[in-house]
Amino acid sequence: MKLVNFILNKKELFIKMFVPFMIIYFILVALPYFAYSVPILGSFVSEGASKLIYRGVIALVFILYAVCIAISHHIKPNYPWLILFFILLITSMLVPFFSPTFLVTRYTDPQYLYTTVSSIQIGMEDNISSIISLFFDLSFAYCFMFIFPSVLKNRRQVIYILLPVIGLMTIECLYSVIFEASQYAKLFSYVNNGFDGYDIVIQASFGSKNDYGDFLLQGIIASSICFVIAKTKHLKIFSATCGIAFYIFSGLSLCKTALIGASLLFLFGFIVWISFSYKNHVRRNSIILGVTTAFILLAIAAVLVIPQLNSVVNSLFIKSSIKTFDERLELWNLALYMMRGPSQFFGYSKTLANYNLYYMSGETNRWFHNGFIYIYCSYGLIGLSIYILLLSFIFLTMIKNLRFNKNIALVDISIIISFLVLTMAEQVILGISGSAGVFIYNFSVVLLPIALSISYAEKGELYESFNN
Prior knowledge:
With about 475 residues, this protein is mainly α. It is built from 19 helices and 2 strands. It has a domain at about 80-150 and about 340-468.
């Protein structure tokens, strides 16, 4: 009881802690991505038992802080969502007892003279870690949706949380320029010869160019939000400069996922902005549409007419994209093929779903490269239905926010639309994940819109901050 009273008396302290807590949390969960090659530290945060302990401690502190906020702010439990999350957790716990066992055929002779048939078996440790991982993922989702919005009070908090993400990626881009200069030289020298880009490695200090591209995309999103909500000209210029630079570096890194995601963000943002403001600025928007259309047509004409440019675009995007799409289509067919019997409703759990795909693909790939198929295979139709409900809840909140602050709502709508397109090609999920790879998504299109909606309804400090 004394502890509860202590927490109740520290309401303002927990509000002040929110910004530094979110910054430290982001840095800690992102550390395994960009510090993997650092001696001792890299292996500690990304390998073996120490990795599980590291992530477990972060998750427990995260939940403990959220509980303190819930108590100090008298936040009532959201029972409908708690029940949905509880159902998903229980069904995931029961999955190992009735999931079908797959038989795996391995050809042990080059000429297929004989085979070895074995079963996929995962141990108790795998099952327990899968359930614990889901528990933490659902806890993160609940915190971002129903607890943390209560302590997001003003514009400055949003900017202070986004700036470290922008700062991190600015440092990474500078690191890449300095330490990967030879790769950039190689890239530009290949422009005249035609290539697919797979032999060029531009990834800064990250473990792969896909991780580098993913964080560049998050940097672009953070820059876009800062640009929209900033009041000072200096911060707007800084945000715009960083966003453009990150976009260029995502192209140079040859990470098509990041480049496509950023392009979709700008495209949808442009379309949404033009659509909602056209009636009030017919002449201005008509000129902008005309100039934009002319620029796109000229760019297409240049690619078609200039042989050198045509070769580069064809090598970088057309050939490799067709190859990538064919590979992923095969993975998706395998993933859907393995969903049979009870697994259609309950899934296989995160661990067994990845094992199934890995062995069915000939031990070549354990990633689904599609967020919806990943949720379906891991948690079945039950999990997929809950995930779609979560996305619908967030999207409807953004639509409601259009009445209060159109600019922020339009940016959020553009981000979530581009994310939904991106999740069709990558194994990224919104809300139900504590990964650093979706931190900015969780903050910008889950926490921020809900916080704005609550504040607008109550005419709170956040409402005043964004409307003055």
